[in-house]
Amino acid sequence: MLQEIYDHTKTHMEKSIEALRRDFLTLRSGKVSVNILDNIKVDYYGTPTPLNQVGSVIAQDATTLVVTPWEKSLLKEIERAIQEANIGVNPNSDGEAIKLFFPPMTQEQRKEIAKEAKAMGEKAKIAIRNIRQDSNNQIKKLEKDKSITEDEGKKALDMIQKFTDDFAKKIEELIKHKEDEILKV
Fold first, then answer.
1. Which end of the chain is more exposed for a tag (fewer CB within 10 A), N or C?
2. Selecting from 1.10.1740.10, 1.10.132.20, 3.20.20.30, 3.40.50.1970, what CATH number does the domain 2-26+106-183 have?
C-alpha cells in the first residue's frame, strides 16, 4: 500500500522534472534552437496544428531558423502564426520557405530569459509540493482508517519529504545549469 504511494509520488515528480526540461527547450540561449517554435500552432484547414507537423524546421546556423512548409499553400498561415507567437523576430518569406533571423542576444535579454527559466523552475517546485501534499493526504487517510500504524505513517511522511527534497534539489540544479547556459556569452 505504502509502496504504491511511493511509486506514484516518484513517477509524478519525475514527470514534473521532464515537463521542466521540455519548457527549458523553448527558451533561447546563445545558439538558436528549433525548439523555440514548439509552442506555435498553425491553422491547418481549421485545426490548430503544431508547426513541426506542417513543415520542416531546421537550424541553418547559430542565429537562423528555416521553416519549409510541406504544402506551399500553408506559407502565409505559417508566417501569420509565427508573427502572432511574438518570439522576437519577423518571418522573412521567399515564396519557398520562411527564414527567421535571430539577432545576437543582449545582456538584458539574457537576464530576462534567465528570469523566465527561474519562474519555470518555481512552477515545477510548486507541482512537486502539490504531489507531496496529495501523497501525505493519502498516508494520513490510511493512518486514520487504521490500515497502517502511527509509526508507519510517520516513516511514510518522512519518506515523501525525502523525495520532495531530492526532486527540489534536482530542479535547483536544472535552473542553475540553464541560467549558466543562457548568461554565457
1. C
2. 1.10.132.20
